[in-house]
Write a structure and sequence with these properties.
Helices cover about 40% and strands about 15% of the residues. It contains 15 helices and 12 strands. It has a 6-stranded parallel beta sheet with strand order 9-8-7-10-11-12, sandwiched between helices. Strands 3-4-5-6 form a 4-stranded parallel beta sheet. The radius of gyration is 21 Å and the shape is globular.
């Protein structure tokens, strides 16, 4: 959403954004370049994840049921806020609460996303007849959107009557490769791996196997075991996660939109660990293998530290395809500009 708002701000004078989300203000501070304010509000549930590679399916269903149990009060609060502020347009990525509230408040509401929670929940295991009323209510809520801007690569956004396709979105940082390698005291022959799984901390890593993987160094988020020589914490390097991503030789991750798209834009090889029950993995991996370079590491090999073969393969695979045109922000801004005239 941030690249879209920045691009829209270049076309719409005096554009302001009110962010109603639980994403912390620090995330937007150096990224969002138009005037903005933040109101911490829970807009949806998503999935309950004990770790980046695990979805607690039972807890996810329970959380959505509880969210639905308080639906009326949440909906009324959103409608009241929207009517008080009278925004020109509401962009929803991708809370169905905001879509329903926008419709009731009489304000144009646009789903701007590559997925809906209806599609994600439908693909989870343990979906039973008991869940169908909840799923239908979520689908009906999305159906109240005036339209959807479907960000490529994405799911169909089923249930929304008008869907307009827009291009991919990525906003990679400039590389600081040489500075980063120098700060870590790396040899020219060593390759640097960023182990990043989308902001959800990993409970543990195979530290011993990583420490003995000659020819590779690793950047990870969080605390390290003592006396690590090949493993470095992101908190100790002189750059942000985005800059680190632009400066390493390969990234190890789960298939998530931001990391996969930025890796493709950066021409960065990817080693990925799949979850297999998160629906948007399929279009993301099709995109990666069409335009980028990557290979799969099984969950068992990830946990046991059998990484070398996948890392070697990612770094020596066939040349990448033609770089995709990252037209998503411009496409979205053009589609939205009319709401401000």
């Amino acid at each position: 959403m941030v690249p879209i708002l920045n691009e829209l701000g270049r076309r719409v004078p005096q554009l302001n954004a009110l962010l109603r989300t639980t994403v912390p203000a620090s995330f937007f501070k150096d990224r969002l370049h138009i005037p903005w304010s933040l109101q911490p509000v829970t807009q949806d549930v998503g999935c309950v994840q004990p770790g980046p590679l695990e979805i607690d399916v039972a807890a996810t269903w329970e959380a959505h049921e509880q969210f639905r149990a308080t639906w009326d009060s949440r909906l009324e609060a959103e409608i009241s806020k929207m009517r008080a502020l009278r925004p020109a347009v509401i962009l929803a990525d991708t809370p169905y609460l905001a879509v329903s509230a926008g419709r009731e408040a009489g304000i144009p509401t646009i789903v701007t996303a590559n997925l809906t929670w209806h599609e994600i929940l439908t693909a989870l295991e343990q979906t039973t007849v008991h869940h169908q009323p909840l799923l239908q209510s979520i689908r009906d809520a999305y159906g109240k959107a005036e339209m959807a801007l479907r960000i490529a690569p994405g799911l169909p956004l089923a249930g929304i009557q008008k869907v307009v396709d827009i291009g991919p979105i990525a906003d990679p940082a400039p590389s600081e490769r040489e500075n980063l390698r120098s700060s870590l005291g790396m040899k020219a022959s060593e390759r640097l791996v960023l182990v990043g799984f989308g902001g959800i901390p990993l409970g543990a890593l195979p530290w011993e196997q990583m420490e003995h993987m000659g020819g590779y160094r690793f950047l990870v988020d969080g605390l390290l075991p003592p006396d690590s020589s090949r493993i470095h914490s992101l908190s100790t390097i002189p750059c942000s996660f985005k800059t680190a991503l632009a400066s390493v030789d390969v990234v190890m991750t789960k298939p998530g939109y931001g990391t996969i798209l930025e890796a493709v834009a950066l021409r960065l090889p990817v080693v990925y660990v799949r979850r297999y029950n998160f629906a948007d993995e399929v279009p993301l991996l099709e995109f990666l293998h069409t335009y980028g370079q990557g290979c799969e590491l099984s969950l068992a090999d990830f946990v046991s530290g059998q990484w070398r073969a996948a890392l070697d393969e990612a770094l020596t695979a066939c040349p990448m395809g033609e770089r995709p045109a990252l037209t998503g922000p411009a496409d979205a801004a053009e589609a939205l500009r009319g709401y401000f005239q």
